[in-house]
Amino acid sequence: MKKLFLASFILFAFSSIATAQQLKSPQGEFEMNFSLTSDGTPTYSLKYKNKEVVKTSKLGLELKNDKKSLLNDFTIVDSKTATFDETWKPVWGEVAQIRNHYNELAVTLNQKGTDRKIVIRFRLFDDGLGFRYEFPSQKNLVYFVIKEERTQFAMAGNHTAHWISGDYDTQEYDYTTSKLSEIRNLSSKARSENASQEGFSDTGVQTSLMMKSNDGIYINLHEAALINYSCMNLNLDDKKMIFESHLTPDAKGDKGYIQAPSTSPWRTVIVSDDAREILDSKMTLNLNDPCKIEDTSWIKPVKYVGVWWEMITNKSTWSYTNDFPAIQLGITDYSKAKPNGTHGANTAHVKEYIDFASKHGFDGVLVEGWNQGWEDWFGHAKDYVFDFVTPYPDFDVKDLHEYAKSKGVKMIMHHETSGSTRNYERHLDKAFKFMNDNGYEAVKTGYVGPILPVGEHHYSQSIINHYQYVIEKAVDYKIMVNAHEAVRPTGICRTYPNMIGNEAARGTEFQAFGGSKPNHVTILPFTRLIGGPMDYTPGIFEMNIQKFSPTNTSKVNSTLANQLALYVTMYSPLQMAADLIENYNQFPDAFQFIKDVAVDWSESKYLEAEPGDYITVARKAKGTNNWFIGNVNGETPRTSNITLNFLEKGKKYTATIYADAKDAHYKTNPQAYTIRKITVTSKTKLSQLSASGGGYAISIVENK
Amino acid sequence: MKKLFLASFILFAFSSIATAQQLKSPQGEFEMNFSLTSDGTPTYSLKYKNKEVVKTSKLGLELKNDKKSLLNDFTIVDSKTATFDETWKPVWGEVAQIRNHYNELAVTLNQKGTDRKIVIRFRLFDDGLGFRYEFPSQKNLVYFVIKEERTQFAMAGNHTAHWISGDYDTQEYDYTTSKLSEIRNLSSKARSENASQEGFSDTGVQTSLMMKSNDGIYINLHEAALINYSCMNLNLDDKKMIFESHLTPDAKGDKGYIQAPSTSPWRTVIVSDDAREILDSKMTLNLNDPCKIEDTSWIKPVKYVGVWWEMITNKSTWSYTNDFPAIQLGITDYSKAKPNGTHGANTAHVKEYIDFASKHGFDGVLVEGWNQGWEDWFGHAKDYVFDFVTPYPDFDVKDLHEYAKSKGVKMIMHHETSGSTRNYERHLDKAFKFMNDNGYEAVKTGYVGPILPVGEHHYSQSIINHYQYVIEKAVDYKIMVNAHEAVRPTGICRTYPNMIGNEAARGTEFQAFGGSKPNHVTILPFTRLIGGPMDYTPGIFEMNIQKFSPTNTSKVNSTLANQLALYVTMYSPLQMAADLIENYNQFPDAFQFIKDVAVDWSESKYLEAEPGDYITVARKAKGTNNWFIGNVNGETPRTSNITLNFLEKGKKYTATIYADAKDAHYKTNPQAYTIRKITVTSKTKLSQLSASGGGYAISIVENK
């Protein structure tokens, strides 16, 4: 646990109980008003710089088999305000220290007739509002089932939103940018096919939802600390422009089994008139509990390569043989099977990756498809799909362990579950023990396809609990977890920093499945990354996949320079260099940036930002004086103008600038880049053209 | 694995493929005919002694999202017959050796248009028919989902049946005896309240279903080897008197996820014109795989007492305190809680049971309510309900372990899961390790209340797999399992003899919940016990529960002599003496029978039997020359006439007869019994009156 630098918590108890309460943020820019309507319905509203951001919005929960629910007939029985201010040090992060500073209002409500109490706790920061429901221990409210949470976010206008369609089983849609009023008509087009998906409404969207008002206010809606609760979507009433919470149901259609005392996750509204401040917000982390892991010395940022992109692009296969229509683990005899000749995870090939990682200073090598069962791994609702400890005949665990060790490289484990959560839990202890025994310190997990138990969803309460179970079990074995297809993060990495990565959005793999929009990476930091880092797997140098995988006609909608910038713009303590070795070997000068770039930072400065258009950020590598800058650009070519005033005054640095060539374009000329070195100081101003789907990356090293 | 005494397997392959096939039982009393209808639907029929038992009945499966299903358009492509004869030794059982002798017909069918193959395998024994579906490995049938199994059992008349209503979540109904045509009208009355229940039809019934035709043929329908498949109910077309299989659905309403190669469980039809032969049938065991446990030396029959009846009757409580509305394991602090003063599982009280067990030669002491969490254990869909390793403050595991060891008694573990199967699996390894560490060799498991994951059922495929997972995991720790509220057994104890007990029917506890019908125990051996032994927990001496638990007005509908007889008539290698110590101390002469009776047998002779009316059985204790006889009687008083011709000729024995007194009656005078000793030989004939709800028990010891 990190020490608190400065912590103060001042509590004020009011004796007078009014029906309305006001709360202001520490610097006074935000004002939150809480009140009860005449029928005792709790409501809140939020102003930023005297502009209405959230109009009066209802709060409450609809319960199953409960006439009154927790919706109205409330009176205020207690109201407490407090101020909190502390600075804490994350184990890894965009910055070395984070200030957690807010004013708090906790309103205790009592429901007439039922004598049930709930607390609604508001925390108002200088970057926005968080609030949650709390269910204290009491006689009349012990166990209950949520039919639906009825939390509203009433918008003040027909904002522009960057949204993906609400879904119980996938987050991997491309973003659509539209007015709120246009969501309904664009919804079906926005729902591309996925291995698992279930929508619920034409105006349903996911969080984190990024919006911009006509008068230039940026508004982000999300949640924080999603623990033992169902994940929230938002459903829009597009007449009134009111979003309402829509929780992910379980197999019976229920939205949550609650036992008091407990709390809901925080509902968050991050607001600014400067888009850079949205990216800079630490509110989501601050609303999570402090680190619960006593000794965090084993948790380390990781830069890695791996046997992955070749399967994603169909160049090689996860499977070992084509002999069997279906696999029965422990019964199917692979030793007598005819190898299909395309199995990527073979010892000799993995050694090439270990050599490459060692030569270029990467920490780890991920290998997918190493274990038996990939021949029918997906789409069959197969319970016993993997055992996570039995390799294919051509993958020598011990040999590779020794070889990697001798080369100073760590193997990274892969646990695809195919959504069969019970099977994974059954094998978890043995699988983690196997990792400990064979030198694996991190695991990439996967949940492709519909969830087992049948009827459950990727984001229902019970499965949220599964992901959490895996993270906490991993702590016992000192294992870092990078979960793919799991629920979108909500800042839980503050509490469990062994969760060093998540996918939970449309990652680079979709560039091999038909492509993502060129401005995708200018939106993700405003949406998906609000909850925590993403294992986006950047670094693709060969945009024409067909060159090495003839059957795959998909193009990567990005310039090479944009791919380099992602290591800085897409913050993550876990970064992959995802492309094939042979593609990196073609561009050793550009590859140098991936080798050099840090994965842990002491400072981060968002220099330019507009969701959907561009992001420019500078980050200082932890424990050094070196800086790295990344700029990603959307579809329209643009000149980025930045000042390096964050550099130490009076010092000279050498900047290596990896930029789009003048004729670069994500579609027609993605590999055209330039590299130049210049001397810079804190007074240097840079002007740099970024192509369509392009960007630039800069490494800045102090001259000594 | 037990050695085979005699095994022969002769295979005949026919080259000529007819559209009809006939199979006869080894002794020729049964004739099974298989044929295809004109549209290629497979059918079978069964005759016994030239009487129609099953009229022409359809076979097949309806598949989900599959137009053709596996119902018709079949042609016979292969047909093989074989004869099998072996004798095997069960680890424990009613007899020391079991003959497995049948003629087999395996018909391979190919479906036109789809080119899919299934095999229907028939085994005809001298006591009935077993058949199953087999799905061989093939290209066109790999994964499929069962919408419904369409196996018919067309009855030849309006039989009398002993039935309980079909249900997905309980087997604990009292039996109703009626004509098949009367089931519909009696159905709702037959469905008493249960902690978990979900019916599906007014003519739905459970197996094992016991019937008797008007011309005196006894017919029993059940299943054998229920592994990785949903449990079968039967739904009656009461116009045509055709039963059809109705499988237990999962949370989505589907009936089974199948991957070829695999097989269905066996569907069984046990038939005789002598009711005793139904009880004597070993067909269900024979249709299961041989023992899969290499070393079975640790599996031993158990006679036990325990802290149980006092909670069932409300004399004491499982819970420790009344302080908390709800428990959070690991957070709720029991050390500061006020004890409720009624907690049964306290160290001092358990020691009384250990002393009692030691004094009277019992093997084990079961203690329920020893572990934290019982305050809100049931009915809240609570996920983390127990951890199975943390005792209440007043239960000293180490002390009791040492104390029991010093007294030569084994503690028996209790794992109530409250139906929260994921939670149980998460803790299973630690819980079993805890048992190993503390001298527990057997565990009673429980599944009270609706199943978690939500939407699943006690008898759906996924939960069937859970029970099997627990049994197989227990083998790793050399632990014997006695599962309550789990699926009704289907002979799997042959394969996994560590499954020494099951409840899976209305047990003695219901005598404290309002009572069971007095003839209940004359039906159970014809129904529930067809699949394997039951932990019925007999031995209640105080029928007026109110005497020791003032708030409980339920009466035990049985005489004391009937309770003694149950140790012989309700075969089980695990037998409890369920009553309170003080109640046994009142009747030391009757208690002697419970002390003497064996729990493992070399021979069993069913002397008299009529389902619903009476059962008389004599069993020879394994490894001795001693015999025990039990007779249970239904509502009508009756004189039982038996001959002891199973005794060794020329030898003299002393028989101690525990019988109903002349004025005994389950309702008005249940504790009236007589004990007399007489000398008997193989020529002795006994005539003994059994009261209403009564019976008798005899121990026979060779004079030396």
UniProtKB/TrEMBL annotation, chains A, B:
Q: Which residues form the Glycosyl-hydrolase 97 C-terminal oligomerisation domain?
A: 600-700
**UniProt keyword annotation of Calcium present:** yes
Q: Does the keyword Signal apply?
A: yes
Q: Which cofactor does it need?
A: Ca(2+)
- A single GO molecular function term of this UniProt record: carbohydrate binding
Q: Please give the superkingdom of this protein's source.
A: Bacteria
Q: Where is the Glycosyl-hydrolase 97 N-terminal domain?
A: 23-290
Which keywords annotate this record? Calcium, Signal
Q: Tell me which positions the record assigns to the signal sequence.
A: 1-20
Question: What residues does the Glycosyl-hydrolase 97 catalytic domain cover?
Answer: 308-505
Q: How does it assemble?
A: Monomer.
Q: Tell me which PANTHER family the record gives.
A: GLUCAN 1,4-ALPHA-GLUCOSIDASE SUSB, GLUCAN 1,4-ALPHA-GLUCOSIDASE SUSB-RELATED
Q: Return the protein name.
A: Alpha-glucosidase
Lineage at the top is: Bacteria, Pseudomonadati, Bacteroidota, Flavobacteriia, Flavobacteriales
